[in-house]
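Need tokens for this chain, all 154 residues.
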Amino acid sequence: MARQDALLRLHKTLVNRRTELRKRLGMELEDLAHVKHSSASGDAADAAFDSSGEEIASTLAELESKELAQVERAIRRLKSGSYGKCEVCSVRIPVARLNALPFSTLCIKCQREMEKEGGWLAGRSAEDWGRITDGSPMEDREVRLSDLEIDLSK
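Here are the structure tokens for all 154 residues:
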């Protein structure tokens, strides 16, 4: 029951973090749009300063956007019942790890293995779309538009 209570607390933490990230991203995107429209005056130093500020804000927004996607994914996993299980080995992720990184999807062992071997997870993931083909990789097929069936009635 303690794990269940911890998961409920983590759900609340994730929802609060999602709300905070959405709010911050909205404000940052507004600020970026405002800076783009108001940076018409000044000398080269002002332009360089504005440019570096925009770059930092853009990078921060990108990082927060990625974190938001991870948080939303964790919330979906919580609702589906797969939260707290390692995506690779299906072992329960310790609550202490989830408290430290609530959107963690790997146990410590698999995370270390992935970091050590770099592309370790890519070989085990079904999401490696670059390796999926319709036929033999040596086969060079010509596809004509007339071969494709397209339903334009919808």
